[in-house]
Structures are given as C-alpha cells and as structure tokens.
Design brief:
There is one protein chain. The longest helix has 27 residues. The protein has two domains: 193 residues, Nucleotidyltransferase, domain 5; 151 residues, ATPase, nucleotide binding domain (Nucleotidyltransferase, domain 5, 2-Layer Sandwich). By secondary structure, it is of the alpha+beta class. Helix content is 32%, strand content 25%. The strands form four sheets. Strands 1, 2, 5, 6, 7, 17, 18 and 19 form an eight-stranded mixed beta sheet that branches. Strands 9-8-16-15-10-11-12 form a seven-stranded mixed beta sheet, with helices on both faces. It has a two-stranded antiparallel ribbon with strand order 3-4. The radius of gyration is 23 Å and the shape is globular. Belongs to the type II pantothenate kinase family. Keywords: ATP-binding, Coenzyme A biosynthesis, Cytoplasm, Kinase, Nucleotide-binding, Transferase.
C-alpha cells in the first residue's frame, strides 16, 4: 500500500472493462519547468455522451432544481509527467481523446472548440506544440489564481486532505471551514512561492525563495550521478548528513549551546565540514551529499515559511508542491524547522494532493466560462485506485501506471450547463 492508501496489484478483467467504459471529460494542465501535472474527470460508466455534450441518466442524475443542467458522478484523476518527456503526455492525451472544452466529443469537433485550461509557464511555451500535435488550444489561467483555488477547494471539500507529520507520525487535521482563513500557502516547485490566503480569490504573494526543488535537483545532478528528482530522493534515504554538515556539537566539543537553546545535534552550517576537511567531492558518499542537500533546502523553506507566518500573525501553514512528494524525511525536516522557530506554537501541515493545486485550480476555472459549473460541494473523500485504472487505453507505459497508482483518484460530481 502506498502513501495515499492505494492498494497495489493488477486489475482484473472486469475492473479494466469498467475503466474502458468510463467517459473522459474536462481536462486541466499545470505545465511547470520540471513536471506536467494533469487533472481530469472520468464519468462513471452509467453515464453516457449525447449530442456532443455529456449528460446524465439513470442513477447518474441528481436533482438540483435546474432543468438546464446535468449532474454527473465520476472521479477526478491526477497524473504527472516529466516536462522533458512531454511526448509521453501528448501520447496519453491522444489515447484518451480529450476534446471540446476539455470534454469528450463524438464525431468531428471544430479545432477552435478543443480548448483546454492550462496554467504554468509551459502553457505559453508549449502552446504551439499542443495545437500542432493534438489540435488543442491551451486557455491560459493565472498560476497564482490556480494555486489558491486548488488549495481552497481541497481544504474545504476533501476529507482527510490536510495532515501533520513529525517523528514518523502522520496525523490528519480536521479543517473548520468557518475558521480556515487566513492561512499561508507555501508552494514548493522549482522555486518557492509563499501566499497569504484570505478567502476565495483573495490572496497576496508575500514572499518566496529561489532555493527550492530546482535547486535540489540542479545541485544534486552536479554533485552526484543522479539524473532525476526521484533518484536523488531515493539516494538520500541511506545518507547521513552529519558526515558533511557542521553541527553545534562539532563546534562546542559535543556539548549543547544551551544558553541560546541550540542542541548539539542542531546544524550550525550546512556542508560546513567540507571546509575543514582535506577531501575532494569523490571522497564523500553520494548518499550523504544528497541527504545534506535535502536537509539544507527543507530547513531553509521551513524557516522562511514560519517567519512569514509570524510577520502576518498566521497560525496555519500549508505546504504544497511536488518537491515534497509525501517524502517522510522532507516533511519531518520542514516540520521540525517550523516547530523550532515557532517554539512549538505553529505546525507545518501538508496536503495529500500537494503537487496538483495549480492543475486543480485550472480545472475549477471552467466555471468562469459559463459552460460548466463544477459542483465542488459534492466533492467527497479519496478512494483507492489500482495500477492501470484509466491509464490510457492501449498506452502501456510503466511510469504512467505508477503515477496513476501513486496519486489516486477522488470521487465527485460535476454539474454541466446544457
């Protein structure tokens, strides 16, 4: 079982047939410098497509008092691709036949109707590629708007979404919707943005740092032989940062500096021991380098986040972005940093769908067109998903299947304007 409570194993024939029967509707993308994040809605197999739009029938329909609307049951799916492997993403989209304002459409659809909501810098960079290869027009959605909308949606509607993590203990936090705002959203991608959120559509980017996920991967590639973020994370598992980091105890003969509240095990200088040792890079284990690098960046982000929370009197700090990836050591380091600097008054909180805030916010923006009303208030808890579920028809790519398994799906309902 993975971190999202997803059962590992293979689909039986019946389950695969069910997946194939599901119709695909409403796709949104967050195309970043490192990763492409995707959110799409799969209509349950007791719903069907009629006259180029999705409509409900039978048990799929819900009474909402509006005869001009259809309400569909289904699942939100979350998927990611490396941006350097964008052709895999294009192949997946081609296999799924996403059409017409992010929805599925039978027969010929005019190319100017194949509009997909997208955010991130890649929405501009790769717009021509999506148009050329798939006939899709990327409708650009503001990145900060999307991040905040995605976070608000999850925190208000998804059960068991936010949690704390420290000393190996994961504890879900029940969010009081009436007391959610204000909070600090720390989105850790290639760089880091810190956003003070005061309500729906009410936010301000108050700070940030260029030392983020891109720093970890960039320095990691230079200092080790790792080629990917996940490879670097895996390497850090068996590392020992104390071999490279200078600790308080190294300076004070193994003693605490109790007068100012520093334990002997506290880091005085990241990579500090390399200054006094007559060693070259190859004399250090790559595992230790990766561990020290991860700890340095995580500590730095945790400290800056708390200082900004203190600046605005905020008690809630939510961390998102694919830098975290549910990685225990990363979350623990950030949590310890927030706990230390706040003297226990503040806690770091994490999100199950941490990396998909922007894509989910872009998905929510379909409401602004008047064509689709996404009924967020019917959003319910995450359910298990097995490898290959809705992984894309005949496309057999192990990395894609792993991503589907890792990120799971969420049951929800969507309201469509007819």
């Amino acid at each position: 079982m993975d971190r999202n409570g997803v059962m590992e194993g293979e689909l039986e024939g019946k389950e695969m047939n069910k997946c194939v029967e599901e119709e695909v509707s409403h796709l949104a993308l967050d195309i970043g410098g490192s990763l492409i994040k995707m959110v799409y809605f799969c209509v349950s197999n007791n719903c069907s497509v009629h006259q180029g739009i999705l409509s409900s029938k039978g048990s799929c329909g819900l009474s909402n008092g509006n005869a001009n609307c259809s309400v569909l049951k289904g699942k939100l799916h979350f998927l990611k691709f490396e941006t350097t492997k964008i052709n895999e993403c294009l192949e997946f989209l081609s296999s799924k036949q996403f059409h017409r304002n992010g929805g599925y459409c039978h027969g010929d659809c005019a190319s100017d109707k194949n509009i997909i909501k997208a955010t991130g810098g890649g929405a501009f960079k790769f717009a021509d590629l999506f148009k050329e290869k798939l006939g899709m027009t990327l409708d650009k959605v503001d990145e900060m708007d999307s991040l905040v909308a995605g976070a608000n949606f999850l925190l208000k509607e998804a059960s068991r979404e936010a949690f704390t993590y420290m000393d190996g203990q994961k504890e879900y936090v029940q969010i009081d919707q009436k007391d959610l705002y204000p909070y600090l959203l720390v989105n850790i991608g290639s760089g880091v943005s810190m956003i003070k959120v005061d309500g729906d559509g009410k936010f301000e980017r108050v700070s940030g740092t260029s030392v983020g996920g891109g720093t970890f991967l960039g320095l990691g590639k230079l200092l080790t032989k790792c080629k990917s973020f996940d490879e670097l994370l895996e390497l850090s598992h068996s590392g020992n940062n104390r071999v490279i980091d200078m600790l308080v105890g190294d300076i004070f003969g193994g003693m605490d500096y109790s007068k100012i509240g520093l334990a002997s095990t506290a880091i005085a200088s990241s990579f500090g021991k390399a200054v006094s040792e007559d060693k070259d890079l190859e004399d250090y284990r790559a595992e230790d380098v990766a561990r020290s690098l991860l700890r340095m960046i995580s500590n730095n982000i945790g400290q800056i986040a708390y200082l900004n929370a203190l600046r605005f009197g905020l008690k809630r700090i939510f961390f998102g972005g694919f830098f975290i990836r549910g990685h225990a050591y990363t979350m623990d380091t950030i949590s310890v940093a927030v706990n230390f600097w706040s003297k226990g008054e503040a806690k770091a909180m994490f999100l199950r769908h941490e990396g998909f805030l922007g894509a989910l916010g872009a998905f929510m923006s379909y409401k602004e067109d008047g064509l689709t009303d996404l009924m967020a208030h019917h959003f319910v808890e995450q359910v298990p998903i097995k490898p290959s579920l809705c992984a894309g028809g005949s496309l057999n790519n192990s990395s894609i299947l792993e991503d589907v398994n890792e990120n799971g799906s969420i049951e929800c309902t969507v309201q469509l304007s007819n």
